[in-house]
Design a protein that fits this description.
With about 550 residues, the protein is α/β, with parallel strands linked by helices. It folds into three domains: about 5-270, P-loop containing nucleotide triphosphate hydrolases (Rossmann fold), CATH 3.40.50; about 285-330, no CATH class; about 340-545, Nucleotidyltransferase, domain 5. Helices cover about 40% and strands about 15% of the residues. The chain has helices at about 5-20, 25-40, 50-60, 70-75, 85-95, 120-130, 145-160, 165-170, 215-225, 245-260, 300-310, 315-325, 340-345, 400-405, 405-415, 430-440, 450-465, 475-490, 500-510, 530-545, and strands at about 50, 95, 105-110, 140-145, 175, 180, 185-195, 205-210, 235-240, 270, 360-365, 370-380, 385-395, 420, 445-450, 470, 495. Helix 3 (about 50-60) crosses helix 5 (about 85-95) and helix 18 (about 475-490) crosses helix 20.
Amino acid sequence: MKTHSLRSVNDYARGVVAGRIVAGLWVRLACGRHLADLESAKSADFPYRFDAEKALRVIGFIGQLPHTKGRWAAKRQLLELEPWQAWCIGCLFGWVRKSDGMRRFREAYLELARKNGKSAMAAALGLYCMVEDDEHGAEVYSGATTEKQAWEVFRPARLMAKQTPDLLQHYGIEVNASNLLRLEDFARFEPLIGKPGDGASPSCAIVDEFHEHDTPDLYDTMMTGMGAREQPLMLVITTAGVNIAGPCYEKRVEVQRMLDGSVSADRLFGVIYTLDEGDDWTDPKVWPKANPNLGVSVSRDYLEAQVAQAIRQPSKQSTVLCKHFNVWTGAKAAWLNMEHWRACGDSTLKREDFAGDPCWIGLDLATRIDIAARVDVFAREIDGRTHYYAFPRFYLPESALDAAKNAQVYRGWATAGHVEIMEGDEVDYAAIQSELLASAGEMTLREVAYDPWQATQLAQALRAEGVEAVEFRHTVGNMSPAMRELEAAIASGRFHHDDNPCLNWMAANVVAKADAKDNIYPRKELPENKIDGVVALIMAIGRAMVAPATQHIACEVWA
């Protein structure tokens, strides 16, 4: 049986930082944060300290619980935490406030590939929080959007308790069909589907596979219900997913920004086990980056078989990357490499800084009752190569917002200024026209590219005002060259965007299948997976390719 001490917990972090343990960037940063905080804790000004006793208390508790599935359960073996697990749990429960000894971290985000023992670890932590977390009348919930998912954590917790009579007797736990209950103070642990009731006061909420949630409703409701608790814990344990517009990816980005120092978040613990950009996923040397339990609960033979199948069948690659190497893939057959796309994002870019550069505008108006997109693309020649700078605008009628599956996400983007909600039942083309004309006088506008299916009338109105509006039909012959140019620009670092989350989401939704002549065309897998912004971007780049970026043509000035 493995034994863990403060030294062994910290040794994992030191081994990662020193390069002795194979780990990706976000794990290295998380371990580096822990070690840096240990040094900072020596200062009186630092508000937190690491309590070894509290860290080892929870680690020791888990070590007394049984496995509930697999060969370990068959042999009636107890849980044995691997070094990475002991470090994660040690950090989560060991860091406390100097002022009162209460737990430092109130939110925790742990992301790793499938089969790495995350559900068993979450179940054990849930049991601990129910009976040993110094919370009178503890309420622990395994929250999910479906009953099946909610039971993925609660079921093993229930089995652990049922198979440990000493635990039941010591804490006075009653094992019921759908909950665990301690009669002494009515502490309980139960699965929860959807939002908790008004009377719920979670002390610990566990969300397994958060990537499956389309909205943050459950997460937000749990958080707001924790206000009366002294040291509540919101724990997310998930694999990567495909919906980068969802709340899970938003939390992931928050964790990344915390780890790289972009934002301060002292109360958030996060670690992401995934491949690094540029890693060859077929190389077994990088597999531990996403699979810290490789060789324990994750079989090398199993991974080898999955990789071999993905090599033979390229259609399987996105699934393998997502589920076994914890890489967010957007659409299941995503056209763009989203890691490369995200690397091109720069939220500091400002449209007004490019007023003197030639600009092409792409308009994809779709239908009047759906989201419409305008993307301004500026071109600059740098070292003999054309760089593109994209600034999107999105418009959505209020009535469509109410009916949209992504309504809450759209509302969040609208509040942040990334999407404009228009009053009424239709997109107001006249308002788009007025806005375009107003901004055109502030830039070196070459052309407005439009699809005649919806925008012919608007194009005529633009021409009447002196704007060069060019028809850009959505044919393979038009779209494919522009898409190939965009691919090349992204890969070589010649493409830049202002990190609009709506455009990022749409980029992840685009699928493209090459024909016999290597032509491609943008498509989407589901109706709700909008791609309008990327289509408008492709149109603008398609027109920008026609004229050299160095040929600055002043646009006509109109009143």
